[in-house]
Task: structure prediction
Amino acid sequence: AVGVLAVVGRPNVGKSTLVNRILGRRAAVVEDTPGVTRDRVTYEAEWAGTDFQIVDTGGWEADAQGIGSAIADQSQLAVSLADAVCFVVDGQVGLTDMDSRLVTMLRKAGKPVVLAVNKLDSSDADYTASEFWKLGMGEPYAISAMHGRGVGDLLDAAVAELK
Ligand code: GDP
Ligand code: MG
Result:
């Protein structure tokens, strides 16, 4: 394996759906409702002849006070152990405070980041991704993890960062 790609983002943006899309099977647990405690899970993946490890994050303690910081801590750990990061945001919802906090954390971590703007299920919605240039995380890749749109281009960029 050439390296480790951590998939981070706030709950419900579609991280596990994306991981399953990349793996070509339903290994990661997709949840409609945030709040289930899960650990980081690492899978062996392959793209265009390159083997790598992909880490699905999403375990968090669903206590009322600390939910945000627990997610951030967990993401931070995954990022610290990774060679590159796929940062996933929800293109239907737009930017949230938690996205901004994760951006701050990612800047400090200094790892290469590829930005995935998910849930853009039709090409009509691709213009929405350009809003995310302002995050300063480079090119926003418009994707639909659910349908597979744009995931190839995203993976090309992610694997390039692992090499
Ligand atoms: P996670 O918490 O970030 O791992 O998100 P999940 O992968 O569990 O997905 C959360 C919800 O978003 C589920 O209901 C998914 O079916 C839905 N979802 C994920 N990707 C997409 C997508 O590309 N398009 C749409 N419309 N829904 C998606
Ligand atoms: Mg998940």
Q: What stands out?
A: Strands lie at 4-8, 41-47, 50-56, 84-90, 113-118, 140-142. The pocket of magnesium ion (ligand 2) is lined by residues 15-16, 31, 56, 58 (CB under 6 Å).
